Amino acid sequence: MKDVGKRLKGLREGIGLSQAKFAEIIGSTQSSINRYENGQSEIPVALLRRYADFFDVSLDYIFARTDNPQGINYSFKPKYTPEKKEMQRFIEMCFDPNSPMSEKLKESLLKMMEGKE
After folding, report:
1. How many domains does the chain have?
2. Apex 96 CA angle, 90 and 99, nearest 5
3. Average pLDDT, the chain
């Protein structure tokens, strides 16, 4: 929690707010803010959200998972292994062989599973 505390302190000091003034703004106490910033107490999730909203930063940033205040942009990349033939069989069953677009859609899905697109 020390990384979180440092991040919280940096955000508050970055805009020149005292612990007392900031506590008043977000509905906490100066002593609580001090304990959170020094890693002596765990900060409640609701208060973490208030920090994120007040400073307009992501929780990823507050938790020091990234140095980008907007957070980490995730892209879903499922892991496909040849052993997972059940999914391939399921995709095969989902498409009408008489439809002209079925084959193209099926190929696209299979390529996505393999991480080729």
Report:
1. 2
2. 140
3. 82
Separation between Cα atoms, residue 65 and residue 86, nearest integer Å: 35
> What pLDDT digit, counting tens, does each position of 40-85 carry?
999 999 999 999 999 999 999 899 888 888 877 666 665 656 556 7
Helix boundaries (H) for 15-44? 19-26, 30-37
The DSSP secondary-structure symbol of 78 reads: -
Structure tokens at 45: 């999730």
Q: Does 67 fall in a domain?
A: no
Provide the phi-psi class of 43: left if phi over 0, else alpha when psi is between -120 and 50, else beta: beta
**Is 109 in a helix, a strand, or coil?**
helix
Residue 68 falls within a domain, yes or no? no
